Amino acid sequence: MSSVLIVDSGGANIASLRHALARLGVEARLSAEPADLRSAERVILPGVGAAGDAMRRLREAGLDTVIPSLRQPVLGICLGMQLLFERSEEGNVACLGILPGSARRIPGEGDLAVPHMGWNQLDSPANHPLLEGVPAGSYLYFVHSYAVPPGECTMATCQYGRPFSAVVGRENFFGMQFHPERSAEAGARLLGNFLGLQSCN
Questions:
Q1: Is residue 57 situated within a structural domain?
Q2: Which pLDDT score is estimated for 133?
Q3: Of 132, 153, 179, 200, which is the active-site residue?
Q4: For the domain that residue 180 is a member of, what is the CATH number?
Q5: Is-catalytic flag, 116?
Q6: Which of the residues 78, 95, 153, 158 is marked catalytic?
Q7: Contact 114/102 with Cβ under 8 angstroms?
Q8: Active-site residue, selected from the candidate residues 27, 181, 185, 200
Q9: Catalytic residue at 78?
Q10: What percent of the chain clears pLDDT 70, i.e. is strictly above it?
Q11: 0.90 cut: is pTM over it?
Q12: Catalytic annotation present for 179
């Protein structure tokens, strides 16, 4: 199995992510060293917390310039997905700028609570190897207060008052707004699909 590195960005979901990968037969390394990211065959950027704090940690480690330059498959999870975009409304923070668009606060409409927390269904998944075997209607586990509106990089959406991007991707960069490591069989399938993606030439 290919080498997988989880970016040590302080995310609270790192332990559960490592356990989920271990169930797939992968012992993922944890590092914030630029050389380790460059040499890994797969890179996962997790995230739980505030965009400003996460970007500060990435900048201090020099990863704000390293991550956009990677050519192997990269997966951002939850806040990690939002960091792939240009900005976040959470503190009006400049993010990595790999994907076009911004994360915006979920509007608390009607009786919908913010954060959006719990199981919700995937809509309109694209025909892509990352989403193979995960049909529309699959339940996934979300915990977030900010979301990226559907755009040119959206590969699947979810509805919470209005649609938002649940899965995104362009070239070798992908993101999942939900937590695949906490999303049972569908989440395990998505992580397995990511592990099977090919690097860019």
A1: yes
A2: 97
A3: 179
A4: 3.40.50.880
A5: no
A6: 78
A7: no
A8: 181
A9: yes
A10: 97
A11: yes
A12: yes
